[in-house]
Write a structure and sequence with these properties.
5-stranded mixed beta sheet; 3-stranded parallel beta sheet
């Protein structure tokens, strides 16, 4: 997994990895554009509450992943970042707005 030099930005998760689950390290603040693009074997990802930015197409093509929990700390989600997945999020959050805009199912976890 490739991170920025200061380890705050997850730049790229290799789509050839066969891991079903991945936990983004605490302290990561940004998930780059297309960071997890076409990671077909990923079924579960844990996003820590240090993350505030999810880039464009960040999880595009992750067809095995059916749901994703977005922490309340996230204040930006780029276009097509999360498609065809149930988004678990807090009421009134950026993630809830995103799910409505892009017609994703939304499960409120208050």
């Amino acid at each position: 997994v490739l991170f920025s030099k200061d380890k705050t930005k997850l730049v790229y998760y290799p789509n050839g990895r066969n891991n079903a689950s991945y936990t983004i390290p605490q302290g990561t603040t940004d998930i780059a554009d297309m960071a997890f693009i076409i990671c077909e074997s990923l079924t579960d990802i844990i996003i820590p509450d240090s993350v505030c930015y999810i880039g464009t197409s960040a999880f595009y093509g992750c067809c095995s992943m059916k749901r994703i929990t977005i922490p309340n700390s996230v204040n930006y989600i780029g276009q097509l970042a999360i498609m065809d997945k149930t988004i678990e999020c807090h009421r009134g959050s950026v993630a809830e707005e995103y799910s409505k805009k892009y017609n994703n199912l939304c499960k409120i976890i208050d």
